[in-house]
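lol forgot to send this yesterday, sorry. struct tokens for the thing we talked abt
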């Protein structure tokens, strides 16, 4: 799919600004393209500290009314609680929105997780239930009239179900590839058993793992969870039982120059292909995908958790970056992860909620070549 087709064979002159936004224990990354005859903004995830997100969006929204494409790795608050702010800030909204497909049992898994972590009014669950009908059919389609009350500023919805899809953002200049690991390895029976240990109602568990949770079953679910006793103990048991299963389906996005763009040789600082990983597990499926991708810069998965680390995800001499909150309760990024990457990667900054931890990469392309690269790691906003 191509969003722009008007560049043709003319000489390429444009700049790309890639920002690793400081939003604390979350993830928010943007890429802005500006040229003679096009202007394009892409976002991968938008979640974390609300004040920090507001500050970063204020900067991105300068002279912009819309986002051309947004990619959501998965349906957890720390990756998506900024979406309502995006829709309020950009008056013309999001033109194309991509998110990963979920089976009914994985959908139930996420809804229960989000409820326990965020409460009944979870932004993540509001989004999931509002967009439930798109999981029945993963074809691209315009947003339905029924959804326009809450999400009128999202123009086109795309549910990513496969293992690889190429999305051309600017025809013949830049591409986005969507990837995801094999996320169907968790048996339905295991998910049912784990949900039953939390919900303790066989009929309801059977219902929500067979059919997608809707507004009616969500209300039933909330009553059962609220009447289950100590809420914190319930949440602790859930997190212990599932052990990261809810992160297994993260959608990765590979941002890459087209073959038309020639790159200067030398260090990865002179290259621009970036892999955004969300919270993908360090599974064999993930490793096989990453090894097939010619990236120069990579987001360290899941805020640097050692549970998502494998040396096989990283290439010598490339750049890696962490996104995590200062003094977060999970201890991210794990010291062991950082120590491993010090020996592998040339540059591995930790981006927190502090504005001066922001990382900005500026690329200038002239005449089909990368003419200049600037790496900035300071407060520009």
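and heres what i got for the seq, position by position
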């Amino acid at each position: 799919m191509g969003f722009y087709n008007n560049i043709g064979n003319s000489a390429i002159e444009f700049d790309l600004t890639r920002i690793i936004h400081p939003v604390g224990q979350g993830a928010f990354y943007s890429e802005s393209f500006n040229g003679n005859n096009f202007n394009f903004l892409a976002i991968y995830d938008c979640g974390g500290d609300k004040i920090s997100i507001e500050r970063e969006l204020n900067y991105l929204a300068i002279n912009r009314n819309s986002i051309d494409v947004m990619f959501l790795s998965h349906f957890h608050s720390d990756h998506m609680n900024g979406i309502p702010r995006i829709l309020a800030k950009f008056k013309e909204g999001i033109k194309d929105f991509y998110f990963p497909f979920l089976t009914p049992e994985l959908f139930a898994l996420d809804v229960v997780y989000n409820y326990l972590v965020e409460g009944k009014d979870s932004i993540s669950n509001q989004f999931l239930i509002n967009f439930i009908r798109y999981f029945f059919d993963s074809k691209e389609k315009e947003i339905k009239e029924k959804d326009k009350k809450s999400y009128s500023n999202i123009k086109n919805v795309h549910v990513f179900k496969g293992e690889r899809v190429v999305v051309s953002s600017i025809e013949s200049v830049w591409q986005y590839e969507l990837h995801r690991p094999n996320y169907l390895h968790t048996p339905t029976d295991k998910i049912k058993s784990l949900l039953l240990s939390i919900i303790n109602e066989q009929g309801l568990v059977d219902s929500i793992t067979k059919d997608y949770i809707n507004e009616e079953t969500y209300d039933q679910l909330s009553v059962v969870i609220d009447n289950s006793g100590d809420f914190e103990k319930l949440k602790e048991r859930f997190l212990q039982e599932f052990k990261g299963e809810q992160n297994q389906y993260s959608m990765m996005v590979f941002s890459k120059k087209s073959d038309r763009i020639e790159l200067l040789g030398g260090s990865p600082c002179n290259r621009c292909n970036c892999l955004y990983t969300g919270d993908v597990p360090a599974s064999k499926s993930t490793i096989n995908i990453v090894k097939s991708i010619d990236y120069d810069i990579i987001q360290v998965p899941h805020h640097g958790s050692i549970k998502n680390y494998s040396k096989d995800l990283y290439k010598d001499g490339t750049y890696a970056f962490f996104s995590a909150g200062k003094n977060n309760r999970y201890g991210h990024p794990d010291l062991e992860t950082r120590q491993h990457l010090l020996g592998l990667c040339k540059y591995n900054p930790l981006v927190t909620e502090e504005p001066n931890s922001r990382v900005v990469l500026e690329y200038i392309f002239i005449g089909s070549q990368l003419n200049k690269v600037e790496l900035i790691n300071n407060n520009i906003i």
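Residues 1-9, 138-148 have pLDDT under 50 and may be disordered. anyway ping me if u want another try
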